[in-house]
Amino acid sequence: MSRRQLVAAGLIGILAGTPAGAEVQHELLFFPSVDGFDTFSESDSSVEDSYTRAALDMLYSFSGNRFRLLGEFLWSSDEAEFERLQAGLRLQGNTFAWAGRFHAPAKFWNSEYHHGQFLQTSITRPALEEWEDDGGTQPAHVTGLLLESEHQRDDESALGFAASVGFAPVFEDGGLEAHELLEETSDHGLSLNLRVSYRPQYLSSTQFGIVAAWNELNVRHDLIPVPDQPESIDQASLGVFGDWRRDDLRLVASLVYFDNTLEFPTSSVDDNYLLGYAQLEYEANSAVTVFGRAESGIDQDDSAYLALFDAFITDRYMLGARWDVVEYHSLTFEIANTTNGAGPGSSRDFNEYRLQWSAVFP
Q1: Containing H/E element for 274?
Q2: If pLDDT is split at 50, 70 and 90, which confidence band does 20 have?
Q3: What does the CA dihedral 212, 216, 217, 219 come to, rounded to 10 degrees?
Q4: What is the per-residue pLDDT across 230-248, written as a single tens digit (0 to 9) for each?
Q5: How would you label 211-234 residue by residue, b for 16+ Cβ within 10 Å and e otherwise?
Q6: What is the CA radius of gyration of the chain?
Q7: Nearest residue to 309 via CA among 352, 357, 354, 275
Q8: CA dihedral for 208, 200, 292, 132, sign (positive or negative)
Q9: So what's the pLDDT on residue 65?
Q10: Domain limits for position 205
Q11: What pLDDT, on the 0 to 100 scale, is given for residue 189?
Q12: Higher-scoring residue by pLDDT: 164, 347
């Protein structure tokens, strides 16, 4: 296993908690990263052409016989906030009930990589899996109740289950704003999430499954109303995902169908589209991994809902390479052809490249 896979396996162990009768464990991990971004041959001068950003993700976990606590705080050049703060209770075996702010189960990528950039091979994440404050169009954080369970079968395979109910984000200033702990709830609608997974081998990372969600996205209006902005949005989604590994190859893919209803003062608009991505990775040796990803969809360019998000990426074709320079430090490079902006006349095409240093301590 590569160093990154060892760290990921260790993190899964932290989040899985301790077996009954085991000693109490405390874990504190730091995931720093620095990103550089630039564009070339863009078709629209409004596209941001360059930036440098630093981030530090701090993850704390307490695991006892029955009780668990998980906190994740992200500081970056753009924000500083608790991404997760949740308390859990072991019901039996590997079944846990959580309360607090957590990652929405219906977003598969987030359940694997969280906010630690070192854990994922690529610098970018697919637009389908993006965070709310980075242009994501589906809730990534939920405040409420979460039930997680994993059951090992007699044939050494495993079934996983995660379901949540809580407060959905609100739509404000051209993006989704997740519910914050201790925030008033009157503006936030209902969020229901589900993920079911199957692992052919319990100790293998290969898995397949389905994701589904229902979200009531209320619109928080500005003091000056924005023309053509809906009053509320009902969003239903259903999709499949897969994470397949064999020898030095890995394929991560997902396909999700969305059905949105946008409620305007005098009418409603039904909006449907399909989004998907596939990322193929090849470990050339213990230090170097090359990868590529394709992202696209059906009817996403004409979506009334996606047109509300100026920065949403409708198509991207990317190639990259990751070099684990020394233990727990990596350098990653990506180059991509990208299109963002849904809706008639809103499409913007550009080429981009990115460079990132990421690490994990201790």
Answers
A1: strand 268-283
A2: very low
A3: 170
A4: 989 999 999 999 999 999 9
A5: bbbbbbbbbeeeeeeeeeebebbb
A6: 20
A7: 275
A8: positive
A9: 86
A10: 3-359
A11: 95
A12: 164
Eight-state DSSP code of residue 178: P
DSSP string, 95-162: EEEEEEEEE-TT-HHHHHHTT-GGGSSSSS--GGG--GGGT-SS--EEEEEEEEEEEE-TTS-EEEEE
Residue type at 65 in one-letter notation: N
Cβ-Cβ contacts under 8 Å for 330 (sequence gap 6 or more): 4, 118, 322, 323, 324, 357, 358, 359
Within a 13 Å sphere around the CA of 124, how many CA atoms are in the beta-carbon half? 30
Q: Taking residues 206-230, what's their average pLDDT?
A: 84
In DSSP notation, 62-99 reads EE-SSEEEEEEEEEESS-EEEEEEEEEEEEETTEEEEE
Q: How many domains does the chain have?
A: 1
> Nearest Cα to 361, choosing from 79, 1, 9, 27?
27
According to DSSP, residue 167 is labeled E
The CATH number linked to 16 is 2.40.160.10
Q: Answer yes or no: are the C-beta atoms of 103 and 74 closer than 8 Å.
A: no
pLDDT single digits (tens) 45-97: 666 678 899 999 999 999 988 999 999 999 998 888 999 999 999 999 899 99
Among 300, 335, 299, 295, which Cα is nearest to 315's? 295
Task: Tell me how far CA of residue 74 lies from CA of 157, 214, 285, 330, in angstroms.
Answer: 35, 27, 32, 20
